[in-house]
Amino acid sequence: MMSRTIGALTAVAFATRFHNLSIPSYVCWDETHFGRMAGSYLNQTYFVDVHPPLGKMLLALAGLMTGYDGIFNFEVGDEYLTEDKEVHYYGMRAFCAICGSLVIPLLYSTVKTMTGSNGAAVITSALLILDCGLIALSQYILLDPILLFFLAASLFCNTKYSMEKRTKFGSVFSKETKHNVDLKKNDKLKCHHHPVLKRFSYHWWMFLALSGVSLGCMLAVKWVGLFTVAFVGCWTVKDLWDLLGNTKEISMKEFSKHFFARSIGLIIIPICIYASIFAIHYQVLNGTGKQDSVHSSEFQMCLKGNRLNNASMPIHVGYGSGITLKFHKSDASGLLHSHNLSYPIDVMPDSQQQVTVYFYKDQNNLWEVIKPNVTEEQEINETDILQDGDIIRLRHIPTKLYLHSFARPSPISTNKQIVSCANGTNVEDKLNELWRINVVKTTNIDTGKIRVIQTKFRLIHVNSGCALHSSFKKLPDWATNQYEVVCSHLHRDIQTALWNVEIHYHRYLQKSTLASCQMTFLERFVESHLVMASSNSLIKPTAGDIASRPWQWPLNYKGQVFSFMGEQDLRVYLLGNPLIYFLNLVVIIVSPVFFAIVRIVELRELSRVKVASPIPKLPIMKSDVMRLNSHHIFACKWYLFGWFIHYVPFFLMSRALYFHHYYAAFIFSCCLSGCFLDLCFNNCAMSISKVFRGWILPSTVRFAIHLIFGILLLESFYLYSPLCYGMTGPFSEEKRSMMYGLKLYNHWEI
Domain 317-506's class? Predict the structure, then answer.
């Protein structure tokens, strides 16, 4: 019966996800990022992303297996199929649809294992299958369906190995209640065992290991996986605590075996999987790309084709050297840059030239080292190598202006001095062009000398004593959204104001070949994560953005545009099924109150029992319902906690957030609703049967309730399915619209 049910639900899930999968036949929303990144793997071209690499690697593999060559540029709106080209995009979309479809059988089995109820598992599956937003997420080249697949796999494997020897009464009630259940005398309370996995058996170890593998893979798709790691961690701590307290069955030696088994399966295996994926990532993406400059100079030396890989240049920097200067920051690095644009008059009345930090290679990153009070034509010799404490001027080669700072507030960081490019015409202006080198780190053989890449130094403004620094705050449109450079007097900024020479050429100094890569895997691993974290924090909402706030997500208050939104376009809009979101919200609010009431009833009944023996027997009264559905309550509590831990942390994030960030929490809310609604339906069926004195069987009433509920879900899905499969024609305000009368919030762009 169970296998037929899973088969039917899986078939429906595949049908809903693969329907109209090929349309729109142009690049939609974040396909522009993840499709292009998948192509980068096929071309072995390095790129920087805010997410770990596994999701893009799997998309690349799917594209490779289905004929995609990695050449298409994936600009939003670009057609996949034209007279000139045919992009094999369907395979990558199909892979995402498969991942999204497999979520359903995995969660069906998870809920069935936790509750022992086919009804709860079917209701959960129906909520997941018929949600328009979940379908939309599964039909495009995105990371979310891959993430949700590994989330579902983690829950399934964790439940399978950890539910051994649990009954309907296991790990739910207090010890008093467990002792008071007389299973032999009360048929109603007959113990229902789930399929038991013998502890430390082959299958037990298999599911424990697969749980760790799934967690590692989920974390390697998106860092949202950390919330699932926290959920499984709390589950495991509770499990170990129960084992520790079970002194009758579990010795300390046995407990130690459980502890070390879980440490291996849920800590060591995920770490190894996660690190291995990055090792493969570095091996595949070994070629230079446009975003290399975000990384340190040492990291770039490991990329084939990069200017620093086996580069030939003078080792030591001297006066007359042409250089690029890298701001050396652990979580992001940029190049000192200037361009032929002036600061606005309200920022700097004399409108001097802007100086910024820029992440890309550009001719405007080139500077020449000039001696103070010396003409540029003067010849240099070997004694002119730069040393710690030397004073220099930096001339911007394309515009012939000098790096300059003086006591005027910077445009964003107003407590710091502005930095500009100018050509001083008087003594004071000339003094504002002087910078002193303060060496912080160099090689043992070059004490005090400025060595390409390896020497880290500060540039201290001679006239004011501040240090050249970048706040990494984005400047407005007048600076083409590049990042602010300042001169700071703050101690913490001076300590972190480290620069190094990246590219170097000189007319007279002898060239040498640099080593190709001097970073270990661990150093690259750490730097990659710092860069990802920094890039993530820099994602801010902009005017006209489709960002939303976390409080809007459970209300289904604001969706997310996936495609063109013209009246003549096929419009796809990420929005949930309103009925499902309403049910989930009600259950999230009501279920904690219900659990509190049930617990109060249980405690009150316990207080009424007269102590006739060391272990008193509870009468079969109001607590029957609670006992009969103990596994439902157990599951509901954990799913409510899972929803909470996957949802609430988003309130603490300052980065731009979008509706699709809710879907990990949405998975838990559907599981919670499935268990809670099944509990309610079962007890309603029993109550109605009692009212009719057994003339109507509970199973008949239960079937009728499920049928009515299913019809309502199908009707809601039918009405709102154009959201995910594509709306055409007028918008919902017009009577001719297919969505007329269905717009519940003004924020819905339907």
Answer: mainly beta
